[in-house]
Amino acid sequence: MSQSELQRLVEVMDRLRSPGGCSWDAEQTHESLIKYLLEESYEFIDAIETDDRAGMREELGDILLQVYFHSRIAQDHPTDPFSIEDVARAIADKLISRHPHVFENLKVSGTQEIIENWEAIKAREKGRTSAIDGIAMSQPALPLVSKIFYRAEKYGVELELAGYTTEEEANESAVGAALASVIGWAHANGIDPENALRAQARKMIAEILAKEQSGSR
């Protein structure tokens, strides 16, 4: 029986991190690899948006490398080590737990109930009582605010949004309030603000390229 490529990757990473392997790989830490995880994730998004199938395969490999790299680093922790097997076991267990309609034959009415069940199970597992529990504060500001609106809605917390006009003085506080209001407006109408902003950015890039090609400014 041929060896699994995933197991082969485990062995490659172990070789790189072990004595006689690669000194650069051996020196890396969870902290030093953060920038690479972010870069590879954004590069995968670019590949999706340009429908680059070869690029998607390559960038997914780079993201997978980060998972295996961090897991191999974790094996060397002096008091709380874990391996890629532990990581895989935990996520498999989580998927089974969060999908009772699949693994426990729980009857659901549709996708919305599936999402509600997921959130309820997640809150119960993690002992969450606040709308902000578990929100990743290190994520970019726009998706962070969007997540806050989402959580507030799920937890029944009504957020007050300050109104604004374009004539108001532009300062950090006013701009922050205006952005939060726009994100709330998008959320209330079922529009993903990140996707909307990225789509607008693509339109702006296309406009700039068209003007450059035509020689107009």
TrEMBL record:
Annotated SUPFAM superfamilies: all-alpha NTP pyrophosphatases (SSF101386)
Pfam families cross-referenced by the UniProt entry: MazG
Domain NTP pyrophosphohydrolase MazG-like: 28-103
PANTHER family: NUCLEOSIDE TRIPHOSPHATE PYROPHOSPHOHYDROLASE
Name by which UniProt lists this protein: XTP/dITP diphosphohydrolase
Originating species: Candidatus Planktophila versatilis
